[in-house]
Design goal:
- With about 100 residues, the chain is an alpha+beta fold.
- The protein has a single domain, classed as GMP Synthetase, Chain A, domain 3.
- The protein is built from four helices and three strands.
- Strands 1-2-3 form a three-stranded mixed sheet.
- The longest helix has 12 residues.
- Belongs to the BolA/IbaG family.
- One of its GO terms (molecular function) is 2 iron, 2 sulfur cluster binding.
- This is BolA-like protein.
- It holds the Pfam family BolA.
Length: about 100
C-alpha cells in the first residue's frame, strides 16, 4: 500500500520553488497543523503571459500528488513584476528562496 505523503508548509514551499522556479513563496497552514488546508502566494516568472486560470492549472499540475491528499487549497499566483508592483519589492528573484 502506498504511504500518504506528509504535507507541510515547508514541503509545499520547497516543491513550488523547485517545480515552478518560484522566486517567492508564502504557504500558510490554515488547518491548525494537520496539513489539510493551505493558502499560498506563489511568485514565478513562469506565470508571465498566463491568465489566472492557466496559472492555477500550472500550479495544480506541479502539485498533483500533494493536492490529491489536501482537503482545501487556495493559491494566489503572481509574476515577479506584479508582486513588485503590489508590494513595492524588487522584481529580482528572492535569493533566500534558493538558500539551502
Amino acid at each position: 500500500m502506498a504511504e500518504t505523503p506528509s504535507i507541510s508548509e515547508t514541503s509545499l514551499k520547497q516543491a513550488l520553488t523547485e517545480r515552478l522556479k518560484a522566486t517567492h513563496v508564502e504557504v500558510i497552514d490554515e488547518s491548525g497543523g494537520c496539513g489539510q488546508a493551505f493558502t499560498c502566494i506563489i511568485v514565478s516568472p513562469e506565470f508571465t503571459g498566463l491568465r489566472v486560470l492557466a496559472r492555477n492549472r500550472k500550479v495544480n499540475t506541479a502539485l498533483k500528488d500533494e493536492i490529491a491528499v489536501i482537503h482545501a487549497w487556495t493559491a494566489k499566483c503572481k509574476t515577479p513584476a506584479e508582486w513588485a508592483k503590489e508590494t513595492g519589492a524588487s522584481a529580482a528573484p528572492d535569493t533566500a528562496a534558493f538558500a539551502t
